[in-house]
């Protein structure tokens, strides 16, 4: 390739990455796909950086200087799984056949130019909203109303979304208007159940794919992109359900009113029982999860003598000292992992914070052990201590 051809190829490559990102692909898939395509065309070195708002690709071809292109992604990530499957099929075909860059660009443009299927999207939305409303205990008429509100949401997606600044703004407006429409209909017809209708409607606004992709990005080591996706997903979820509030607080001074919580879930974090007792109702329940000696056993074995043996008894004893224990059980299971996932897990877990994860021999790690104690109880008040 000449420098001009490399520049054209780089432009098509970034366009492919943008299309994957906008269709709902996680960052790992975008980077892996672009790497494979570049390698198929003879690239000596490829450096790709992808986050939710931009893609940067640096490409080095034989006997040519490196070239870099950057693209700002202004469209919010979607979840067009049909287009995503077509793009995946195209990438596999491109890697196998290595057609000219012009043909690659033409095939990509053909996929992106395909019109959507609004009727199929409408039918799926109506069916989903109605089914969830009935599934969670609503009547048939609740399902019919939820389906009607789903039609209203689809109409807003088509005609209102282009005028909104971003997905969060649209989610706020759509959730408010659809909620008001459902409540007004329920007020007119007392036989309808507003809570059941709203459950069905909310399911259309819950950002399931962004949540999933955010967790996958974080587990695969793409911390920045995963965190950005997670923040966006939390904002979308918060706008989608006005009954829920999401925030980040300080464990030393939890920003909640006294006696406002029915339950508190503490997962592998330091416990501030004074604060838990303050925010819990008198009969509120604390669910405490604490790691046991077998937790992530395979990573401990890979670290060898560089990691001290762990004894979970002090954490459990401390919990027992502050709780009236209602139930306690041990949860132990294993799950398969690949070598790459094991490395990302080693880099993520605080257990190996002082150890270079890249220095570990994880070739023999094919599964990970989850070993934990679950303690359920009420907080002991001052008169009980």
Which terms would index this structure?
flat, 17% strand, single chain, three-stranded antiparallel beta sheet, 385 residues, 7 strands, alpha+beta, 4 domains, four-stranded mixed beta sheet
By helix and strand content, what is the structural category? alpha+beta
Strand content: 15-25%
In percent, how helical is the residue content?
40-55%
**What characterizes the major β-sheet?**
4 strands, mixed
In short:
The protein is α+β, with helices and mostly antiparallel strands and 385 residues long. It has four domains: 3-113, no CATH class; 118-205, no CATH class; 209-240, no CATH class; 261-384, Vaccinia Virus protein VP39 (Rossmann fold). 52% of the residues lie in helices and 17% in strands.
Question: What would you note in describing this structure?
Answer:
With 385 residues, the chain is of the alpha+beta class. The chain has 4 domains: 3-113, no CATH class; 118-205, no CATH class; 209-240, no CATH class; 261-384, Vaccinia Virus protein VP39 (Rossmann fold, 3-Layer(aba) Sandwich). Helices cover 52% and strands 17% of the residues. It is built from 14 helices and 7 strands. The protein has helices spanning 3-23, 27-40, 81-97, 101-113, 118-135, 140-159, 167-188, 194-205, 208-219, 223-240, 273-279, 297-303, 313-322, 339-348; strands at 45-51, 54-60, 67-72, 261-267, 280-291, 323-336, 367-379. The strands form 2 sheets. The protein has a 4-stranded mixed β-sheet. The longest helix is centred in the middle third of the chain and has 22 residues, at 167-188. The chain is flat.
